[in-house]
Amino acid sequence: MINTLTQVQIVRNNMDRSLATVAADPVVDRQTEYYRENIRNIKSIDDFMADDRIYRYAMTAMGLEDMIYAKAFMRKVLTEGTASRAAFANQLADSKYRNFAETFNFANYGETATSFSRTQEGIVDKFHRQTLEVKEGAQNDGVRLALYFERKASEITGPFDILADRALAETVRTALGLPDAFALTDIDKQAEYFDKHLDYEKLSSDPEYLSKFLERFSAMYDLSNGAQTAAAPTLAVFGPGPGIVPFGEGLLSSIQNFKLGGS
After folding, report:
1. Which residues contact 232 (CB under 8 A, 6 or more apart)?
2. What span, in angstroms and rounded, lies between the C-alpha atoms of 255 and 69?
3. 11 and 136 in contact (C-beta within 8 Å)?
4. What is the reported pLDDT for 241?
5. Entry's Pfam families (predicted)?
6. Angular region, 70: left φ>0, alpha ψ -120 to 50, beta rest
7. Which of 33, 76, 77, 119 is found 20 to 30 A from 206 (Cα to Cα)?
8. Residues 6+ apart with CB under 8 A from 43
């Protein structure tokens, strides 16, 4: 029986082994093998869209699995690329579409777009991490949010990087103890509040600051949602490990001790 804070620490402390376990899953292994063997044969957007296994793998890796069905929408994202400020992907609030168009950059590189490491092993690495997050989220969505925030933290340079991503924004609102209604307030006011309470440079460059932020989020998530009581799969594999904060005193102290902002 485990809480969010403990499970996040377990996964983070055993990340390499957790990812290796995901990669070794027979279903994941077959999907990855097909992708590795065939991505170099994709020479156009038409090729990309026509190979459903390649397309689904790439979309899942980039966190866009909910949009797999929207092929016309995604074709427009890829066709227009990101070079122009008026490009479709640049007009969308969610930065995942821009990242997708930059990764599979057919608009700039044509038939060589899939020859880069970012579209080959880079996508495989992302697929494994995304699969791990989804697997953990099936047990506890707070763990998924924490792992996703950790993965994206290095890309956060200001409040609008957070506000443009629903998962990042939810994580920050939870960590700061803000109600859901806060998301409906003026976006500039939200940005101003985040500026006062977060140190973006530390989030991207200071592992200790990021760890404390994730501890605070995890504790606040359990206070808001009730401590998760399902036995987590990672715990069964790795055990609690050293330095894991148990539920109770550690939960409360992680809230009290973490100081947001630059101090």
Report:
1. 2, 7, 10, 136, 139, 140, 143
2. 41
3. yes
4. 43
5. DUF1217 (PF06748)
6. beta
7. 119
8. 110, 111, 114
Q: Report yes or no on 166 lying in a domain.
A: yes
- 172: domain CATH number is 1.10.3700.10
Last residue of a domain, one of 95, 116, 139: 139
Question: Helices 121-139 and 26-38 sit at what angle, rounded to 10 degrees?
Answer: 160
Residues 19 and 107 in one domain: yes
Tokens 């997708």, residue located = 100
Q: What phi and psi, each to the nearest 5 degrees, are found at residue 70?
A: -90, 65
Both tokens of 13, joined, read 């402390």
Contact at 8 Å (CB) between 34 and 26?
A: no
Residue 34 lies in a domain: yes
**pLDDT of 100 strictly over 50:** yes
Rounded Cα distance between 200 and 103, Å, is 25
pLDDT at 67: 95
Domain, as residue range, for 157: 141-225
**Length reported for the chain:** 263
Q: Is the pTM of this model over 0.85?
A: no
What is the residue-wise DSSP string for 19-52?
Answer: HHHHHHSHHHHHHHHHHHHHGGG--SHHHHHH-H
CA atoms within 13 A on the CB side of 16: 0
241 Cβ contact partners less than 8 Å away, ≥ 6 residues apart: 9, 10, 13, 14
Are residues 39 and 94 part of one domain? yes
